[in-house]
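Lab meeting, action items carried over

1. Structure of the two-component assembly. Owner: GW. Status: complete.
Input record:
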Amino acid sequence: MSVPFYVSPEQLMRDRADFARKGIAKGRSAIALQYADGILFVAENRSPALHKVAEIYDRMAFAAVGRYNEFENLRIAGVRLADMRGYSYDRRDVTGRALANAYAQTLGAIFSSGGEKPLEVEILVAEIGTSTAEDQIYRLTYDGSIADVRGYAVMGGPAEQVADYIGEHYQEGISLAGALRLAVDALGHDSNEVRELTPDQIEVAVLDRTRTQVRKFKRISEETLGRILSESSPDTTPTESSADKPEETDESAEAAGDTPVAPGGDDDVPVAPPEEPGGDDRPL
Amino acid sequence: MTFDASGRLPEAFLTPGGSSFMDFLAGHAPDLLPGRRSLGSADFSADVPHGTTIVAATFPGGVVMAGDRRATMGNIIAQRDIEKVFPADEYSAVAFAGSAGFGIEMVRLFQVELEHYEKLEGTTLSLDGKANRLSALIRGNLAMAMQGLAVVPLFAGYDEDLQGGRIFSYDPTGGRYEETHFHSVGSGSLFARGALKKLYREDLSATDCVTVAIQSLIDAADDDSATGGPDMLRRIFPVVGVVTADGYLRLPEDEVADIVDRVWAERHLRPDGPASATLT
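Predicted assembly:
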């Protein structure tokens, strides 16, 4: 008679967290940044069709990194929740807090249930108010923990390095053009080598308080983006702390086969095209 | 509407499905759909407010939609400043005649339907697609229409492919008909349509098109007791929406007032409105 393995709850949770974290770190970063007139979203994403940033409601947007199919499902659920609340109550009664809560409960329940694999996603729910002080950015991780962020938030990929870069250069009340340049530079400073990202490699959207329409979300086209970026020069100096690269916590003796993405492949493609075998699994 | 007690998103929200908000409601919260309620067998036609006359007309590069401000309940004026013309989305307008309660609910649902699709799919529906969704919405209301609670909408929008305005009318069974140049629905529509027929030209400017629409509403109010004319004492004027390549614009109150004042001044001289030539 075989004796089932005993796995301590701590170990179990750690394994699940490592599993999710690894999947998320394999993708590219996404940034949300408060600027004078709203919130800017910049994500490295080479697919023009599969979005990492999207509109949820009048003053609310959603950004995510990780597995596309998983966060897309969460996005759709968010739009359904928001539209249904707005329809049965009023448009003003749709709040970021309620949505962030629903996401947190959902992610948390999935993370701690034994039956489902944890979602390999990290998401942001952002809502603009009438002034910068009233803006809200909620950052939610795979385990359902939720943080109220001020200023800026970075997730996915080498998030720490990107966040460090923004932290060094960010100022409150920054202009849209300034915020955009900062975010694009930060995405380029995600490794020892400084990359210069071109407009077709990034996805940009804003929640703009000054928009006259009720719906404040707006995507910024490649063309407009190119124009704004051409007005400022990129920062090409490498970050000093490049030597002590943050190491991935890999204590859990996880077999290579357990990693959520197909091994190998081209790292530059955020979402592998369907014809590439196993490509669907690559996180955004 | 049911929300999970734990605060977790209900399963239905996370289940892959179509991009229609109406279909989602039908599966998850059917009580929120207007057509799903049981009414018994009474005839409600005289007991609830009814909206009256709507007109729409195209001009090169866009379309105008206007509605009077009256709602009637039998012989009573239920409301004198009701609004019956709304933006459906950025490039289309919708208005209704008939049962006001259901009309407003239908417009709200239609607006969410279009916005929901846009958010989920990342692109807007074609103008014909939007017109067909409205058909489906009316069809769901058929049982109530038979009991005197019919809602007859008028839908108009800017077609980006054709670069011009288009108008769609409906019957209570959901039939959808495209109209050329102009159309009118509601109790005063016969008179409004007559006026439009005589005043309309294909090359009208946007302002002239609005003027023609207002003329036709005044004519409708002249001969139909349920249609409200411009309320000169309270300064309540028709709601006018204009849809062009720049999107939906509700004409500001003072601009409508200017046009109404000019029309009104002319009508002091000739109460039946401008005369049209017997030939040409």
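2. GW to write a short summary for the group page. Key points so far: The first helix of chain B runs from residue 11 to 14. DSSP finds eight helices and 13 strands in chain B.
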